[in-house]
Amino acid sequence: TWLEYSVHHGELKMNKKPRRRGIYTMYHGTTVANARLIIPNGFQRSKVGLLGEGVYVTRDVLKACNYPRNSALSDRVVLKLRVRLGKCKEIRDDKDPLLTTWSKNGFDSAWVPPDAKMASVPSGLQENCVFDPRRVEVVGIPSGQLGATQKPRNCGIYTMYHGTSVASARLIIANGFMQSQGGMLGKGVYVSRDQTKAERYPLNNPASDRVVLELLVRVGRVKRINKDNHPLQYTWNEEGYDTAWVPPNCGMKAVPSGLEEDCVFDPKNIKVVAIRNRGCLRRRRFRR
């Protein structure tokens, strides 16, 4: 499959019908536990719902933030998606003959516009249902942004960055990360929530040979390392931690820049979702 590093060209106004075979930015609200399953394994088709079987998504991020309805706010995650809608059926009536059978009539997705005034959509907000989960790809977590000074929550999923060379970026995109065998925090994959820090790496490479990868990172259990010669500086993983975190401006001589840094022990907890360069999202494609 192709991984396309720009989805912003696919944004639509809420009341505009998706074009056939269009690729769009959409959102899905779920629980933390479900998000952990969806990110590595992909979506599963819901068996029931307003529009029948499929994956329920929306272009309205505020609507996605309201789901799951019975979950606490602390247990809600919004996934940012890249969605290939295919042939789309517009549904405006609760009694539409294809309300739940559109997929059996040659359509790949169904769309309820925001002005449909359907009794089954009391919020009046836009909604889509995509029959084939393979048409839906997670590309980010809007709610996963943290300030550089905020400690990552245990088990959280966050947007982070990694600076590398063009050649290494191609290998990482194709095969995933490999664990570094050494570094200021020992073994692991070194990442940062500070994109400007990632843009500096590799330190000795020219700017033309630097690539910044945008990542989704499952941090697991986090250990704060905020001083030189910390007793767990290199052994945090042996003590049951999944990630080590160096907060910004903590005064460590090993971090002269004073910028935030993380080390994730297991590379499988990191997924590349985009390429960023000099702060701009570029439209580039690489084979996975």
TrEMBL record:
A GO CC term assigned to this protein in UniProt: cytoplasm
Pfam families: PARP
Top-rank taxon: Eukaryota
Domain PARP catalytic positions: 25-96, 160-232
GO MF terms held by the record: NAD+ poly-ADP-ribosyltransferase activity
Family of this protein: Belongs to the ARTD/PARP family.
PANTHER family: GIG2-LIKE PROTEIN DRED-RELATED, GIG2-LIKE PROTEIN DREP
Official protein name in the record: Grass carp reovirus (GCRV)-induced gene 2p
